[in-house]
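Field: COMPLEX_INPUT
Field: COMPONENT_COUNT = two
Field: RESIDUE_TOTAL = 634
Field: MODE = joint
Values follow.
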Amino acid sequence: MSHTGNTVSVPVRPGRFAEFWSYFSENRGAIAGLVIFIVFIIIAILADVVAPHSPTQQYREALLQPPMWQEGGAGQFILGTDAVGRDLFSRLIHGARYSFFIGIIVVVISAGSGVIIGLIAGFARGWVDTLIMRLMDILLAFPSLLLALVMVAILGPSLTNAMIAIAIVLQPHYVRLTRAAVLQELPKDYVTSARVAGASRLRLMFVTVLPNCLAPIIVQAALSFSTAILDAAALGFLGLGAQPPTPEWGTMLADSREFVLRAWWVVTFPGIAILVNVLAINLMGDGLRDALDPKLKRS
Amino acid sequence: MLAFILRRLGTFIPTFIGVSFVSFLFIRLLPGDPILLMAGERGMSDERYAQLMSQFGFDRPLLTQYRDYLSGIVRGDLGISFKTKQPVWDEFFALFPATLELSLCAIVFAVVLGIPAGIVAAVKRGKWPDQALMSTALVGFSMPIFWWALLLIILFSGVLGWTPVSGRISLMYFFPTDTGFMLIDSFRSGQPGAFASAVQHLILPTVVLGTIPLAVVARQTRSAMLEVLSEDYVRTAKAKGLGPWRVNGLHALRNALIPVVTVIGLSVGTLMAGAILTETIFSWPGVGKWMVEGINSRDYTAVQGGLLMIAVIVMVVNLVVDVLYGLINPKIRQR
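Field: COMPLEX_OUTPUT
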């Protein structure tokens, strides 16, 4: 049984990926997003090597120094310095780390728990299903940022707590998606045959059904990656996320708010970093959706 | 149809109870004792502590407390603000018109620009207007709006000096605020310049809050239009020799608008989340700024009340949108 299963699936897998790639690579925006995303990852990994200065080193003789191309700027600080003389460029580079860290952790927690709860709801049906879905309705009734804000108020402001709050807020979407996909797959013949062959419930859930539900979940993961980065930056901006002197982009913006009319660079560059990062991920997400969603596929 | 509405209400009520329970639990989940939190650094005598505990009902069993809380909500009693000692209900509804005015303006902004943009993109599918509009929409959709607000302030308030940075109206005007909507009140006051000042104060916050809905409306209009444009009846209309304005504007748009209206209705939650950031940046005296201040000043009864009221407002709007959608589209009712 398992032998035939293997011989059948091995030649199919690369074909599937090639099919996906041919759709994905048709979308120029998606490729651009992917390239930017990879560049950001490399920068995040090599932050210590790439950054010209330490993100927390204060150069007291160069407070609010403008970028190098503007009058008063110097080559030492490419994008200028902030109000306590820290190199903006180096802080942005280190900020990339936080951004990815936030995105990955939030997606892993919310998708991991959401998919498991969604599988349980879809397989259990009955009152378990109703209870889970009502709980998700309750979580979804609150505007996401508001709920995250209040949870941070309970847990205390920090980056970790902001990530937990955002993960909880994003998780119901995975539960709904997974449950809906499971309900669509369950009546199909391959599930029945696996069940008749004696597959255990866990095997049915994770090995038989889950792989066939992954497409919408992957698209949602890309979307919530960018939502997580935006929401974490928003919480940081409101003083409820990462705390200074962490070079998190939203926190940097909050720090520099009072200089908005005096030093445009301390406000402009962290925002560009957030925007470009989120935009790249959303471009990829659009490409993923077009490539994975069979409804939109051209025959 | 009645069965559909009843079924929809059947999910509304349990969700409402759950939402009220979450907001009820909020104060109880805070680390530490709410009464001591309220007292802050000062501390208090044991008698005063016991008195406050019984005044706020924290000494009773949890379920009794919840029952009292729930019956309070129904009577319009959300407790007393820790900070101002005013009823939270009154505070909320005194500030809510400001948020509502801003949100309505943002929706109008999003619809007025978003629907034409979506139509143009759909009609010119694949050509440069489509690509330009949809790229812009994606940028808008990815926008950290708190940063967008700061950029607009730099440009329009700092460099050009066209718009004020904060508040709802210039301090030099004073008139009764009967409706709570500054545009209406300033217009009715008849004072020269008051209305213009209110509009000036409203522009930047409207653009900031409306940016993400604008992107969503444009994208949604485009995809809805594309779906409708490939329908047989549109082809028939074209074959009859009707002009593009009549085909796109009348035949296609009417049906394409249904999902668009739904999306607009369902974006109230997004608007409320956006209002928190927008109001904080522009010192807009609405419920979003009030919530953030409540969290920062540990005014937890205010946060609790605001959390509940905002969730209930979002739920009611979603319910109304759902029912209207069911009225328009019989297919939904069957489910």
